[in-house]
Design brief:
This protein has 145 residues and is mainly α. The chain has 7 helices and 2 strands, in the order ααααββααα. The chain folds into 2 domains: 78 residues, Orthogonal Bundle (Arc Repressor Mutant, subunit A), CATH 1.10.10.10; 31 residues. Helix content is 61%, strand content 10%. A two-stranded antiparallel sheet has the order 1-2. Strand 1 and strand 2 form a beta hairpin.
Length: 145
């Protein structure tokens, strides 16, 4: 496997992930909004400037994404207790709950649809479990990355 093939596989796995975790009626965010939301999940109580620095997006893009996320009720803002001129952002409890619920959806049906033969689908699920064990660092309860 070369880097190009790994990239294509990564894109395919992302598409399968979206298919497995999404359902009809789920809110669909554009990639920039997803990135801002993910950053806020990892770094609660951030400012727009801090999100900009971590994501590399322009200030205007982060501000627009935050505005859309707030419109959808996914993000809340509060004045910084140490400097009332600054606004701190975090995801709402409902957002966190919805993300956890979506993340727990099984991938079996998605893989069965993607791989026509059931024995190959079962093998793909086994390989994905093995790859996750090998490539993903162990997470402890306090690690959110």
């Amino acid at each position: 496997m070369d880097a190009g093939e790994l990239h294509r596989l990564g894109r395919r796995l992302l598409a399968l992930s979206r298919a497995a975790s999404g359902q009809a009626g789920d809110l669909v965010l554009v990639p920039g909004q997803e990135a801002v939301l993910e950053d806020l999940l990892r770094h609660p109580d951030s400012t727009v400037s801090e999100i900009r620095d971590r994501t590399g997006f322009t200030q205007s893009h982060v501000s627009a994404s935050v505005a859309r996320l707030r419109d959808h009720g996914l993000v809340q803002a509060a004045a910084d207790p140490s400097d009332g001129r600054r606004t701190r952002l975090r995801t709402t409890r409902a957002t966190t709950h919805a993300i956890v619920k979506r993340a727990r959806r099984t991938i079996d049906d998605t893989i069965a649809t993607a791989v026509a033969e059931s024995d190959q689908a079962d093998r793909a699920l086994e390989l994905l479990d093995e790859l996750a064990r090998i490539l993903q660092p162990r997470r402890n309860d306090s690690n959110t990355d």
